Structure formats: structure tokens, C-alpha cells
Amino acid sequence: MELNDFIRQMPKAEIHVHMEGSIRPETLLKLARKNNVELPSDTVEGLRRWYTFTDFDHFISIYIKISECIQTPDDIELIAREFLEGQAAQNIRYSEVTYTAHTHYEQKGIPFDEQLAALNRARAWGEQTLGVRMNTIIDISRHVDTEVGLITAKWAVEGMGQGVVALGLGGPEVNNPPERFGGAFQFAADAGLPGVPHAGETEGPASIWGSLRALKAVRIGHGVRCLEDSALVDELRERQVPLEVCPTSNVCLKVFPDFASHPLPRLLDEGLYVTLNSDDPPLFNTTLTNEYLQAAAAFGFDEETLRMLVLNAVRAALLPAEEKQAMLQVYETEFEQLGKS
Predict the structure, then answer these.
(1) Once rounded to an integer, what is the mean pLDDT over residues 323-341?
(2) Global pTM?
(3) What is the residue range of 316's domain?
(4) For residues 330 and 322, what is the distance between their CA atoms, to the nearest angstrom?
């Protein structure tokens, strides 16, 4: 089997992908027309051009406009269903999806329980209809007040047992250190809810150290700039803290000049725990499948390395041990069968 065919057919798992950042132009146009929201273009092609990443401010403006188009719980269910269809098309069997609930509460007044119910309707539909699973990470956007962070943490704790598996921290890293939200993450940790903040992409090692120490992070979103601090690399290696690496996202945000310059091979050579993810796929003109295809082409990864990266994501999933072990066995069996074909 050709390597590219192997990549397209292999079972996958994704643990760093944003629900709102996964909305395809077709879906956005549908929502904008339904809710009378004016977009920069009224065609799918025009929106694709608008989606094309230029800089972080442009990216944030798109994110805000996307959020304006989501006005009801039914809209939330729609974007979640279409997200799951996109995952199923790539054979991504399991996803942990970051979702920014407070934005929809602040903008449109949608109560959290109604948002969660909508996500869970889509979640049940995806499992029954498509055979794919999704759990949710409720995240704090790090530019908000600490009080909003605590509200979000309380919502996330309320969602435990209803598909919410972690508290996240996203948004602009610069001038927003993780320590600001120590109280929110402590509240979640006291309730048994893990913390999975973004850190070490547009800021350096201090952001990762802060996430480990102040937020008790069990995984790090991105984390690629750990390589700037050998003591941090040692810490992450020793503890085998999973890094949710999103190469195309890093390139778009100019952390690295191009895909070939990405330190993914070095992260692996250092013995760090690495997973591969797509972050905000249509906004960065990528998919999880494309991240694997690009990595194989740029770095010469073989089937065994690709299999390891997939299984790393499964092992890093925030699931009960028995459930995770059962899922791992399914993936390993499929890889064996794929290897024989």
C-alpha cells in the first residue's frame, strides 16, 4: 500500500481541534443567511479567500464573525454535526474538541446548559450515525477577566459526566500568562477535572512552566517552544506530558517559517510525548489527514512512526482507563489489518 493511502485509511484520533475554528465556509454561509449576519462575501469561494490566514488579528476577527453567526442552540448542534461529519470522512474515530462557551453566552445570552445539551445531541448522533466519538474541552479565552475564567471553570465542572473532560485555556498568549487563571484551574482540579491549556506557541518556555506549575496541566496545547529551555525539555520528557502539536498552525502564526522547518522530528528525537493535530483546520487550510501527509513528506516518517503518533493521541485521551484500553485495542487491531492489506 502507498504511504499516502495508508495515511488516508488509518484510524485517527485528534485531541487539539477547536469547534468554532472548524466551521467550513459552506456552513458559515448557511448560518449567516439564516441569522441575517453580513459576511465579507456571499459566496463559498469568497469566504474561502477571506478565511486564508494572514495574521493573528485577522484570524481573531474571523473567529468573532464566526461566533456572531452562531445564535441558537440549534446552530450549535448544526456546527457540531458538520464537524463530526468532517472527522468521520477522515476516519477520525475519537476527538476531544475545544469549545468556547462563554463567548456564546456573552454575545447571545445562550445559557451554558442549553449549549451543552446541543453539543450532546450532536455527540449522540455522531456516535449512532457515523460511528465517531467526541468529548468536549470547555476553554477560557485568556484575554478575559479572571472572574469569567472562574465562571467557565464552574460550567466545565457542571458538565462532568456529560461529555466535558477538561478545562482549557486558549486565545492570545502574549501578555496573558497562565498564572492569571490559577484559581479557575484549581477549582476544576479540586472537582477532578483536568487542565489542558495552550502554552508555548506564541510565547516561550515561561508560558509552559506556568501551565505546569500554576494550572497543573496534564497536557500542553502546542508546547513546541519547550525546546528553548533544556530543563523544561527534561521535565516534559521525564513526566511524559503529552504535547498537542499542530504544525500548520505554528507555520501560519509564524512560529516557524515553513513546514520543513518545524521541529516535530526534534521533539520526537528528544523523547517527548508528541501528538499530531489540526487546531483550526479550515482557517489554516488544513485537515488532520493533511498534517500526517505533510509530516510524512517533509520528514520521511514511515508507517511505524505514523502509527505511534496516532496511538499517542489515543493514550493521551481523557477517558477512564478501561475505556481507553478498549479503544486502544480497536486501533491496534485496525493498524494490523491495514498493514496486511
Answers:
(1) 93
(2) 0.96
(3) 3-17+77-340
(4) 13
